[in-house]
Design a protein that fits this description.
- It is a single chain.
- By secondary structure, the chain is an alpha/beta fold.
- It has a single domain, classed as Collagenase (Catalytic Domain).
- It is built from four helices and seven strands.
- Strands 1, 2, 3, 4, 5, 6 and 7 form a seven-stranded mixed β-sheet that branches.
- Strand 1 and strand 2 form a beta hairpin.
- Helix 1 packs across helix 2.
């Protein structure tokens, strides 16, 4: 487990304003951080993935929970992060819409819209496009289940206000020692979440502004 807490203002002192209509709310209680998100699945998300017995929607949601949930060392304390993904298609709350295309072959495996470069806000609706196929991926073009789950979790990271770490590394000169090669926001295919990643997410929620690793303001 990763052991560097970097939340600048100290996560225990955060008072993050929530609104019942926000797409994402953050609750801090004791040693637990709960991300409560209103998620809507769209497209052909009910299509089954091979013989797994799971739909693409199932894979996307389980990827988000599996990759983000866990215990992280934050400001001298082990903190548990929980992902509460609520599916309430008929309510008036803003949402994170995950649109899944399980048929089209595209050059990019996923996209998150309105999530980066200043257009993100904690409360606004968010949109993720997920695709099941990419030309020449492992011969067949069909993403593996683990790749699809990881990519879903990476794109959800954008919905929580985090920029791509590979962009900050290559474009802004951030030393590799600051960004682990297998950080989920740098390696969308097989990475994992570090406490540093969670810290940047909390900064985004606190400042209500998307964050990249270099400036975080």
């Amino acid at each position: 487990m990763e052991t560097t807490g970097l939340t600048r203002v100290g996560w225990k002192t955060l008072t993050i304003m929530n609104n019942q209509r926000d797409a994402i709310n953050i609750f801090l209680q004791g040693d637990t951080i709960t991300v409560n998100a209103n998620v809507k699945l769209a497209g052909n998300h009910t299509a089954g993935y091979l013989a797994t017995g799971l739909s693409y929607g199932d894979l996307a949601l389980s990827g988000i929970k599996d990759l983000w949930e866990g215990k992280y060392w934050m400001d001298g304390l082990w903190v548990e992060l929980k992902m509460d993904l609520v599916q309430s298609a008929g309510n008036r709350r803003n949402s994170v819409t995950i649109n899944i295309d399980a048929t089209q072959i595209v050059t990019e495996g996923a996209n998150a819209y309105n999530e980066k470069r200043g257009s993100w806000s904690k409360g606004g609706s968010k949109y993720i496009d997920m695709y099941a196929y990419k030309p020449d991926y492992e011969g067949s073009g069909l993403y593996s289940a683990s790749h699809f789950k990881n990519t879903s979790a990476h794109e959800f990271g954008h919905s929580m206000g985090i920029w791509d770490f590979y962009e900050t590394s290559t474009m802004y000169g951030v030393p590799e020692s600051i960004v682990a090669r297998d950080d989920l926001m740098r390696d969308s295919a097989s990475g994992r979440v570090y406490s540093k990643t969670v810290s940047v997410m909390l900064d985004a929620m606190w400042f209500n502004k998307s964050q990249e690793l270099r400036t975080r303001k």
